[in-house]
Design a protein that fits this description.
The protein has seven helices and no strands. With about 140 residues, it is mainly alpha-helical.
């Protein structure tokens, strides 16, 4: 891609994706490490959910977080694989959220606390993926 074809919004959207990633990555890292200081701020029922989830949900969560990171960096680099990475990240976060709010034995409890944020989170991830596919189709990613 020539410098003339580089569009400013690739930087903006990639930066927004990294902002979303930062909070999720911090949470993932602290929960995975079982950081005592961080866990002191996390409600016990949420800890029980995270630490009791099946392996496939933990993998989906990690894939979502790290797929978003590498997808955002790929957008900054103008790489077409950003679309694939962001699509995988979006699918992974949807699996993760589906487990918590639909498949988990106590899903009704989690839904009662409000389902708006998981839907917004899934839409944000899907939006990043859709944006990357549009940019790839327009030839702005190589």
């Amino acid at each position: 891609m020539s410098p003339k074809r580089r569009v400013w919004h690739l930087w903006l959207v990639g930066g927004l994706a990294l902002i979303v990633w930062t909070q999720g990555a911090w949470d993932w890292l602290m929960m995975t490490r079982r950081d005592a200081g961080y866990l002191a701020t996390v409600p016990a029922d949420w800890q029980a959910l995270v630490f009791g989830q099946p392996l496939w949900v933990s993998i989906a969560w990690a894939v979502a977080i790290w797929g978003l990171f590498f997808g955002a960096v790929s957008l900054w680099l103008g790489r077409v694989w950003a679309a694939w990475l962001l699509t995988v990240a979006a699918a992974a976060i949807m699996l993760d959220q589906a487990y918590v709010y639909v498949l988990h034995p106590d899903a009704a409890v989690w839904r009662a606390q409000g389902i708006g944020m998981p839907i917004i989170l899934c839409l944000v991830f899907a939006g990043f993926a859709a944006y990357a596919w549009v940019m790839a189709k327009r030839g702005l990613l190589r």
